[in-house]
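Attaching the record inline, Q. Sequence:
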Amino acid sequence: MQSRNEQSDVEKLAYELTYHRYLMNKSRTQNLFTELTIQEYIALHTITKASSGCEHPQGKMYLRDLSDAMRISIHIVSKMVGDLKERGLVIWSHDGDGSDGTYITITESGIASMNRQDKILDEYYSRVIEKFGHDNMISLLKEIDKLEKVMNDEFSGKEDTEGQDDKTE
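Structure, as predicted:
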């Protein structure tokens, strides 16, 4: 039996790996999802992560911030959040008269749904991590983060100024 710390580490790794798999290969990971889509799962996790340090216990995240975090259009996020709202998993509200922005909070049902999905992913990724190795998994995720940064820099036209001298010699 895993301790709560070990389980929390596995859940964090499972989320990170799921997020990366989502970005790279949506179709195969889809089979692990029963009541939430991959996008919905990532959205609920993203809203929950945004709540750390927030006065709202269920978290509060602006629609635009969720769109940016998930790297998808505001239109797609709006549709997804509308679906989550209809199922009672989130509350969609606005500040003031709405001109200050709309935000999402996760409901208790949303947290419960996310936790059920976490359990499925935890079981799957625990077996994967056991076979692949915990240290290997952490190393791989760090390398993927580096790769994504390089790829994103390439898309935005930024050049790596470190090591520039090496290229000119």
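Residues 161-169 have pLDDT under 50 and may be disordered. Residues 20 and 144 are 8 Å apart (CA to CA).

More tomorrow.
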